[in-house]
Task: inverse folding
C-alpha cells in the first residue's frame, strides 16, 4: 500500500515534467503548395497561397509575407506593407488571399516589412518565396 503512494507522486512529477512549456512536440512539416500573384493597381499586389499541414495560422501568414517580400525585390522595391489577409480551410488544405503594397521606401504603417531581411529569414527557416 505504501509503495503505491510513493509511485503515484513520482509518476505525476514525471508526467508534468514532460509537459513543460519549453518541451518540443514533433509535428509534420508544412507543405507549401504554391503562390499566385496579381498586380491589382499601381503598388497593390494580391497573393493567393495554398498550404497543407498548417498547424497554426501564423504558418500561412509567414508564407504570405515571404512571397510579398520576394515579389517586392523582383520588382526592384525594398519594402512592403501588409494590407489584409483572408484565410479559409477546406478538406485540410488552407488557402489565403493576402494583399500587400510594395514601395521603394519604408511605407507608413505598423505592418511594414524590409524585403531583404524577410527573404533572408524565410530562406533560413525553409519557407519558399515567389
Result:
Amino acid at each position: 500500500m505504501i509503495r503505491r503512494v510513493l509511485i503515484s507522486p513520482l509518476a505525476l512529477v514525471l508526467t508534468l515534467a514532460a509537459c513543460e512549456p519549453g518541451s518540443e512536440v514533433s509535428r509534420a512539416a508544412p507543405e507549401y503548395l504554391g503562390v499566385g500573384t496579381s498586380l491589382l493597381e499601381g503598388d497593390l499586389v494580391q497573393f493567393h497561397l495554398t498550404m497543407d499541414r498548417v498547424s497554426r495560422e501564423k504558418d500561412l501568414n509567414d508564407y504570405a509575407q515571404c512571397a510579398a517580400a520576394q515579389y517586392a525585390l523582383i520588382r526592384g522595391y525594398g519594402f512592403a506593407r501588409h494590407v489584409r489577409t483572408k484565410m479559409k480551410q477546406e478538406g485540410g488544405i488552407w488557402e489565403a488571399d493576402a494583399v500587400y503594397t510594395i514601395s521603394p521606401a519604408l511605407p507608413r504603417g505598423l505592418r511594414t516589412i524590409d524585403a531583404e531581411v524577410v527573404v533572408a529569414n524565410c530562406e533560413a527557416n525553409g519557407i519558399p518565396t515567389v
Q: What stands out?
A: The beta strands are 31-41, 44-52, 79-90, 93-103, 112-114. The mean pLDDT is 85.
